[in-house]
Structure formats: C-alpha cells, structure tokens
C-alpha cells in the first residue's frame, strides 16, 4: 500500500472527482442535472474517499437515516457509493474506507449500518449479512383481476408529482413504522429522487411521466408504458403499468390501490417493484395465481455496530436468558461472549464470562436481527453452533416477528 494514500471526507471541490471515479467503477455516468440532484441530498461530511497522490481512487459515503426495527426504529448509517478504481483494486482500499465509515457511524451513535451489496461475496467479511429481501411481481390483466374482498377508495386522486411530497411522505412515515427493514426518507430524498421526474431519469426519450395516485392512507407511484419490443402490431405488444412503489398505511388502502392499478384501461399487465416477500396483496385476487413473482433477491445488508443498543432498541417476542459467542474477528467491539436477557418484550445485552449457549457469526446475527432469517436455518446450514440444547429454538422464538422485513429504498 502506498504511503501516499489518504482516506478522508471529500471537500466540496472534490465532489465532481468523487462522482467521476464512481462512474468508472460502476461503468456508468450520471448527467450533470442528476449530479446536481445527488449533491442536494448527499451528506458530503459523511463521505470517505481514498486519494493516491491527490487522485481520487476510492469513494464511499453514508446517509444518516433511521431504520425501522421490530417494535421501534434506530439510527442507521446507510452506506453507499462504494467504489475503487480498477487500477487500485485489491490493495485494501475498501477495507480502509469501511473502517473509516464505521468509526464515523459509531462516533455519531449509530448502532446499525446497512447497504445494498453489488456482489454477494464482498460484505460478509465486514460483518454485514442479508437481512431483508424484495421481489418483483407481475399480474396479467387478461380477463380482469377481481379481488376476493373488493374495496374502493373514493379519496383516490392523481396528484401532481411536484406537489406530492407532503402527502406521500406522511403516508410513507406511517407505513414504514409497520415493518422492520424500511428506512426513513429525508425531504431531499423525496424531491431529488423519489418524485423527481427529470427527463434524464426517464427510461427513454418521450417516456410518459410518472403518476401518483394518492388516497388518505396509501399511494402508488407508477408509469404506464407500451412495450414495443414484442411489437404492438396486431395487439401482441404489452402495455405495462409499472409500479415503482405502492405504499399503504392500512390493508384496505393497499387493496384499493391494487384494484385501481389492475383496472386501468388499455393496460395489459401490472408490474410491482420491490414488494415484500410476504406481500398480503398476493392473497387479495380471486385467482391465487394472479400475481406471480418474476424476480427476487436480497435487499438490505445489515451490520450491528453496537449490540447493547441494537438489543435494547427492538422489541422481542419471547423471554430468553442466553449467552451468545459472537464471532466478529474484525470488530473487537462486538467479538466475544454476550449475555442476552429478554423479559416482557425488552432485551439487555452485556458482556459475559459464562459459557456460551450458542455460537454465531456477526454477519449471521445481523441477518437474524430483523426477523427475516431463522437461527434454526442458520444452524441447519452449519454456520450457527448450538452448545446448549434448546438455545437455538429459544433465540428464534425471541426474534420472531409478525411480518417479513422489507426495504423500499435502493440506495
Ligand atoms: C454499498 C455499495 O456501494 S456496493 C458497490 C460496491 N462497488 C462495486 O461493486 C463497484 C466495482 N468494484 C469495486 O469498486 C471494488 O472492486 C470494490 C469496492 C468492490 C472492492 O474494493 P477493493 O479496494 O478492491 O477491496 P479491498 O482490497 O479492500 O478488499 C477487501 C477484501 O474484500 C475482498 N473483495 C473485495 N472485492 C471483492 C469482490 N468483488 N468479490 C470477492 N471478494 C472481494 C478482497 O479480496 C479482500 O479480501 P481479504 O480481506 O480476505 O483479503
């Protein structure tokens, strides 16, 4: 490693060079307008860039958001834009930037860090494990899609994208508290990203604008487009209602939005992006096969930075008194034995000298924390070791949540 290498926050003047470097590593650049919008929401003081003799060779940053955890929410460093130039890869630059990002998050009192991983093999070594999953669903509209329990929302209106933020943000804020894994959204995230309909962010020139159908308790952000790949000639093309997000604070609002989206004239199918694995909307149509999963993958990768705060910050489903051997080789703050005491829904974690009831790696504990992965499954996979019979089942009961974790924002 070169002695000339420095890792620090980028200055205002270096923002352009940071994006230039990231564009090389990600094989794709942003327009000038998109760069400006990103700058509006970027927390420059949280960036950590690597400079080799003054040249930006590595980039990374974080947003200081709040993550819904079971029964509450916690501050979370949302790590983003991690890149290293191809000339400087595999020299430990990511490792140095990650160390700096994590130190900064801990200084800010954030007990959790999270990211979306570009590849599955990178982040486990840094204590991150997949903790929520999303899927994309498709509904073919031929013959209609009657719901078993139909509901209409007379408050539903198409609202202007530019003015939608106060309405959608209020609904989102109610909905996000109902499921672990969802991040809070600062105002600039709404205006410069979610509700931005700048031409340079549309999929193709002339593509129709995104629309917002908003009711009192739910909204859908969608676009209707004709897919000419198959050729619209003779009626063999598709007209797709592409739903970027459907957010409902009540089950009725969700069903009413589904009824609305599946009854838009001239559309032949609906595609719903980033839905939870246990999407209740799948059960709403009369035909149980109406909604099909066409893509599925991991979403949020989580890392626990402060175990006592993470344990105290979520609610627990059953009592437990266990000692966990947490294997976190790169993190002395987490590595070692912890007594986990849970009573009446509240948990406490403290360092312990007692023999361990089970051994679990940092990345696996993070995967299980939001309730999306069973510890018994990790044990069956051979990565959790039970020393005291029943310890795995006890931990699973305590971690259990009613709904699968879900993450709406790709960052
Ligand atoms: C949150 C996000 O932004 S996800 C986006 C991540 N970025 C990208 O995918 C863009 C293209 N890739 C890159 O820019 C770089 O290859 C990075 C950022 C993924 C890795 O940066 P590097 O500086 O090469 O990583 P670094 O040298 O610090 O490697 C640390 C360890 O991770 C391993 N590693 C790094 N990248 C990979 C990978 N893609 N696959 C498997 N292992 C990897 C290294 O082998 C090393 O392992 P070790 O500790 O056992 O020796």
Automatic annotation (TrEMBL):
Keywords: Acyltransferase, Transferase
Entry keyword Transport: no
Matching Gene3D superfamilies: 3.40.630.30, SCP2 sterol-binding domain
N-acetyltransferase domain residues: 5-152
Active-site residues (renumbered): 123, 411
Any one Gene Ontology molecular-function term assigned to this protein's record: aminoglycoside N-acetyltransferase activity
Residues annotated to bind acetyl-CoA: 82-84, 90-95, 118-119
Biological process annotations from GO: aminoglycoside antibiotic catabolic process
Family that this chain belongs to: Belongs to the acetyltransferase Eis family.
HAMAP family reported for this sequence: Eis (MF_01812)
Subunit and interaction comment: Homohexamer; trimer of dimers.
Record protein name field: N-acetyltransferase domain-containing protein
Organism in which the protein naturally occurs: Patulibacter medicamentivorans
């Amino acid at each position: 490693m070169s002695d000339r290498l420095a890792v620090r926050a980028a200055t205002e003047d270096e923002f352009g060079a940071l994006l230039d470097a990231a564009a090389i590593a990600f094989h794709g650049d942003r327009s000038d307008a998109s760069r400006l919008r990103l700058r509006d929401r970027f927390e420059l003081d949280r960036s950590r860039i690597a400079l080799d003799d003054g040249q930006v060779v590595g980039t990374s940053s974080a947003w200081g958001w709040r993550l819904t955890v079971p029964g509450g929410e916690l501050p979370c460093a949302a790590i983003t834009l991690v890149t290293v130039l191809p000339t400087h890869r595999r020299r430990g630059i990511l490792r140095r930037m990650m160390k700096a990002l994590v130190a900064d998050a801990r200084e800010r009192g954030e007990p959790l860090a999270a990211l979306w991983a570009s590849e599955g093999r990178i982040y486990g070594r840094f204590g991150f494990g997949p903790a929520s999953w999303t899927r994309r669903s498709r509904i073919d509209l031929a013959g209609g899609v009657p719901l078993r329990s139909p509901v209409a929302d007379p408050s539903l209106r198409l609202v202007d994208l530019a003015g939608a933020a106060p309405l959608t943000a209020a609904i989102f804020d109610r909905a996000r508290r109902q499921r672990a894994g969802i991040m809070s959204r600062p105002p600039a995230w709404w205006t410069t990203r979610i509700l931005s309909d700048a031409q340079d962010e549309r999929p193709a020139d002339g593509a129709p604008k995104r629309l917002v159908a908003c009711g009192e308790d739910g909204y859908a952000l969608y676009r209707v487009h004709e897919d000419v790949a198959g050729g619209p000639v003779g009626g063999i093309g598709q007209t797709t209602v592409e739903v970027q997000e459907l957010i409902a604070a009540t089950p009725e609002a969700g069903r009413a939005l589904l009824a609305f989206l599946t009854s838009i004239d001239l559309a032949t199918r609906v595609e719903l992006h980033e839905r939870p694995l246990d999407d209740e909307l799948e059960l709403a149509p009369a035909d149980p096969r109406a909604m099909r999963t066409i893509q599925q993958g991991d979403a949020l990768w989580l890392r626990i930075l402060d175990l006592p705060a993470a344990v105290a910050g979520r609610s627990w489903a059953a009592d437990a008194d266990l000692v966990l051997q947490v294997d976190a080789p790169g993190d002395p703050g987490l590595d070692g034995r912890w007594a986990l005491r849970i009573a009446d829904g509240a948990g406490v974690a403290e360092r312990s000298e007692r023999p361990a009831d089970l051994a679990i790696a940092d990345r696996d504990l993070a995967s299980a924390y939001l309730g999306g992965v069973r510890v018994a499954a990790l044990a069956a996979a051979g990565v959790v070791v039970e020393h005291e019979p029943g310890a795995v089942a006890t931990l699973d009961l305590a971690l259990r949540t009613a709904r699968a974790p879900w993450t709406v924002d790709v960052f």
